Structure formats: C-alpha cells, structure tokens
Amino acid sequence: MINFRRKRIVRRKTYHKLAVAGMTRGAGATHFSILLGNYYSEVLGRKTAIVDLNEDCDYEFLKQICTPEGLINNNVYNIHKVVYYQNVTRENLAGIFHENYECVILDVGSNYRKFINEISMCDRKYMISSIGLWKIPGVVTGLKEVQFNEQWKFLYCFGDKESADYISECTGRRLYSIPVINNPFKITGRQLMEVERILEA
Fold first, then answer.
1. pTM (2 decimals)?
2. Per-residue pLDDT tens digits for 154-186
3. Which of 15, 139, 186, 192 would bridge 3 by S-S if both were Cys, CB 3.0 to 4.6 A apart?
C-alpha cells in the first residue's frame, strides 16, 4: 500500500536521468531507488521509470509480491505509477532513455564501475554507503579511488554523524543522512521533508 500523500506542488529543481549506486553490496541502493521513484511519481507527478542494472535480484522478489501472477515472467511491469525494467541491456537502455519519461532512475547497485558510461549520461548521481565503524576504511578508500564530479551526492543510511564527519574530513566529500524508512512505499510527512532536504541540497 502506498502512502505518499501529494502535497501542494512547489516548483522544484528536478532531474531527467538519475543514477543510484551502492559503495558496497547491501548499502541500500535499491531501497533508495524505489523511494526516489515513488517520490518523483507520487509527489511530483512525473512519469517515472526505474531500470534494474543491479545484480542482487531484489527486483525479482519485488515483482513477485507486488504484481499480478500473470506478469511474473514479464521484464517490464508497473507497481503503482512507476514502470520497472529488468534484464536491461545497454542497447535497451538507449531506447528507454528515448521513451516519454520525465524521470529515469538507474539502479546500478555496487556495479557502478561497470556502468560508468551509462552513469555519465545522468544528471544527478547518488552514492550510498553504510558507514558502520568497521566499514569506514573501505568507504574512505572507495571515495578516494573513484573520480566523482559535482553531480554526485553522497548518502549514508547506517552509521552516525561522527563517522560521516570523519569520512568527510578524509575525502573532502559531504555525506547526507538518509532517514530510516522501513517501507519505500509508505512514508510519513516528516520523513518526506527529510528526503526533500537531501534531494534539494
């Protein structure tokens, strides 16, 4: 059940193509991609698609529990107002970009190095990290290894502000905290305000 309540629409800066990556597997890229898709579709009223370039098979499970049984073998399906694409090749991706979508979200998961060319076509990129104490060295190394431009925004969903501040000092990258949202199809008004603060920063 989706519970994104449409607000009075304010003219906001939006992006046509977005990429969501995870510094490591399980960092939360898919969860944030779905949340982002629902936000663009339900709150901003944009015609939105999510493209699965992740290799974790999370969308297969989502499809099984959220779509009619007859669509189980379909690689293109709708959940509420968002269109989901699975098993997408690079050739298919070009066609999706030319469809009449106002927002296309690429969920590349931890495969961001593999899809660097596709990511380069996106207007905004989100890198999500888990910054628990034992994860900090790997995050610092990862942020230093990859060449990120100003279109990248760095988020974390597991960890504390002290860890985020330490990583920022080591890498020169500002990290934004993602609010804890257990269900990306259901969000409170306060959580929505926090998400918008991140997107508009």
1. 0.87
2. 999 888 889 999 999 999 889 999 888 888 888
3. 186
How would DSSP label each residue in the chain?
A: ---------------SEEEEEESSTTSSHHHHHHHHHHIIIIIS---EEEEE--SS-HHHHHHHHHS-GGGTT-SEEEETTEEEE-S--HHHHHHHHTSS-SEEEEEEET-TTTTHHHHHT-SEEEEEEE--GGGHHHHHHHHHHS---TTEEEEEEES-HHHHHHHHHHHS--EEEPP--S-TT---HHHHHHHHHHHH-
Tokens 């399980």 belong to residue: 26
- Give the span between the Cα atoms of 58 and 34, in whole angstroms: 11
- 176 touches 198 (CB < 8 A): yes
Distance of alpha carbon 90 from alpha carbon 153, whole angstroms: 24
CA within 13 Å, CB half, 98: 5
Q: What is the tens place of the pLDDT at every residue in 80-129? A: 889 999 888 878 888 898 889 999 999 998 888 888 888 988 989 999 99
Question: Angle, nearest 10°, between helix axes 136-145 and 161-171?
Answer: 30
Q: Please report the pLDDT score of residue 148 as a whole number.
A: 74
